[in-house]
Amino acid sequence: MTYLIDRRLNAKNKSSVNRQRFLRRYKNHIKRAVSDAIGQRSITDMDKGEQITIPNQDIQEPVFGHGPGGKRTIIHPGNKDFIKGDSLPRRQSGGGGAGGKAGNSGEGMDDFAFHITQEEFLEFMFEDLELPNLIKRQLAGTESFKLKRAGFSTVGTPNQINIVRSLKSANARRIALGTPSKKKIKQLEQELQLLLNNTAENKPSNKTAITVLREEIEALKKKLKRIPFIDTFDIKYNLSVKHPQPSAKAVMFCIMDVSGSMSQGTKDIAKRFFILLYLFLQRNYDHTEVIFIRHHTAAKEVDEQEFFYSRETGGTIVSSALEMMKSIISDRYPSSEWNIYGAQASDGDNWNDDSDNCFKLLSKDILPLVQHFSYVEINPQQHQDLWHSYQRVQALFPKAFAMQQIIDPADIYPVFRELFHRRSA
Amino acid sequence: MNKHQQKRQPISVGSDWTFDLINQYHEAIANIAADFGLDTYPNQIEIINSEQMMDAYASSGMPLLYHHWSYGKQFLGIENNYNRGQMGLAYEIVINANPCIAYLMEENSMTMQALVIAHACYGHNSFFKGNYLFKTWTEADSIIDYLLFAKNYIATCEQRHGVDAVEATLDSCHALMNYGVDRYKRPHPISPEKEKKWQHRREEIMQQQVNDIWRTIPTGKSSSTQKTEKNFPGEPQENLLYFIEKNAPLLESWQREIVRIVRKIGQYFYPQRQTQVMNEGWACFWHYTILNEMYDRGLVTDGFILEFLQAHTSVIAQPGFDSPYYNGINPYSLGFAMMIDIRRICENPTEEDREWFPDIAGSDWNKTLHFAMQNFKDESFIQQFLSPKVIRDLKLFCALDDDHHDHIEIMAIHDNTGYRIIREQLAGQYNIGDREPNIQVVNIDIRGDRSMHLQHYQHNRKPLNQDTLSVLQHLHQLWGFDIHLESLQDDQASSHYHYPEQNETQNIFNN
Question: Is ipTM > 0.90 here?
Fold first, then answer.
């Protein structure tokens, strides 16, 4: 008795539960590896999975076993020129010596390496992060949906009937079903006319032919009448699908200094900071809008591409960007409907007189409207006026305002995390 | 059978397989196996793809197993190595069950499928059915049902008590899995129906028994208690998991059941750990013999047999000790060499063979091989059947590594004075008792702090490894009270391990 079974079509992901269990157990290791990877990767790489390495000793499953030492005899194959009584120096590593360690296979200290997908990579990266103080202002707690038209369907409720569509298809059906009979009637009537015109020769055979024709026409007309004007399967319904509508809308302002004082390296770091923010927003909020404002002496609202990839030079007036942010908020994003977030990156340079303006703008006009505003200064040197002004802002708004200094690319991620760490409030 | 007598009428010529061809080859192989008297369980051959093979790998080859992170770790490791091309997958996996389940990979060529059928479905399968260890310790009829029971039970526990709690218990049990084995006593057969019926009763009764052991209410006159105060357990216990299942005071009944499940599965794998060389040697011998017989009967082409021989040669390759590929003795190689040599001793004995193997030289080879397969395990098989010729062919030598000496000494090589030493030492290498530290429960402090005292009896002064404390931690997790382990060297305690760790002053190290 033998059975031959083709299992190839069976599910192949039997191990996926076990895999998830493993990822869950070593979450901390993986998170650490992910945040290291973010520090090193270039931004365009962010959409890939990652090779994760965990030190072997951390994931070992301990069992009782023998340690090195004691007296042991080991049989090896492939003797070449040893004879009984030879003595050999002990080798430290295995490597195939006659040493006792050669037999202890699997003792390698290689780290355990495996691959996680992009999905998992971002998941780990964004874990525990949430836009700070996000208040669900509209329809708190429940997710709302918006119905969107998506063509027609043959099933639905009466209130969704599309009359034009239904009548069109009823008409088409009537034409399709009725045409053969109508043609036949037309043909028979012609024949009948012909016979009636020739009534002169009043043959009995003609009479019977006429009655036969009349009966036939009558039957066909009855058949035509039986074609219903509208049938159940003519009825078409409007089809609508639900699109999730986030219950809280958020807009994120990205402000970056692109003046001459910003070196390429500084800009690079700033770009990474924003891209992290941007990726994070895109992932967490279906309908989060992002406004990019770049500035030197004057501010300009730009699209994402231009924001990150075009170059300009000139002096620096930070308040120009804050002014612009303020006016955009009042024009387009009333704070009663939107949760507003600001993020600013700069090297700390500013016209001396301007820093005070910035303080006023932020503390008077902007911070009362926004949920959170973060400032990163990418500058290894001494802080300048702007930093000190912002410190005063922070003193006034300790919860809604955060500032951090970044020195090299590896600093970005920790800062990013700190800025957006889930607040307990 | 007529067509067997005809000249060269191969079943197929191409390398692609079809279900029809597999059936035809299987039939031919089954006929030849029957001619050689191989007694097997019915076969269930399953064709799977490489992803499924990786899944099967990750769960120790079992078709269904409870969920645990360690299997996920296995899987990730395999997947990583396989995707980077560092490792090929095995051609087959075979499961000791009735019917005997064998997995064939769809990527294999027709030749490889035939090889696998001969190797797994007739080689391993007859070994599972015939070898005394498998007969004694495993229940091929009910293992699949038991695994299903275990999987469902653990899934229920996870729902009821949370994944973390179940995982912690399983971790601890896995650490002691090799110490959940009865070595000398026939265990209860695993019967799934009874298992279910008994499970509930067991929970109650076990808890009662545990309570009895721990009843410390004074029973009256102190003089009588003084007299009856005995050492518990009465004799040292080597089956740690069994001891815990029956006696651990703080385990919940579901935890006891999990201990039991891990113990049962450990017991199921125990014979496989003891018969690697024999099992693989036996299977290689038969795929070699059967496929050559097919060639002799004209059922396969020259191309087929060449492809087969190439695969066969790479499976039984034994790199020398100084080769970069050397990774210990290849059980396929040693086993195959010995099986072939037994046949040679029976058919064409030399003077030397008559002197070394007077009983089997010149006897019926098939009967002798079957006798060897049925009644031995690796250790005794080598001790009994390793011939001087095999030692010479493999150029085995024995190295003595003693930490009391500065140098490694060559104790024996393949010469007249060395054969017996090599045979004895090699057999010792396959003795599980020597390979794994001998650790037993010697005393429970019933009237005191309920601590568990274990002893390790050193073999050739070999100390315990650095995992020891972590394993004790797992033991502590199950037992619930302090654990003390002393490592004995010639009845002298040479080192002590404690969990929870004790103060330095209390630690004694005699180096």
Answer: no
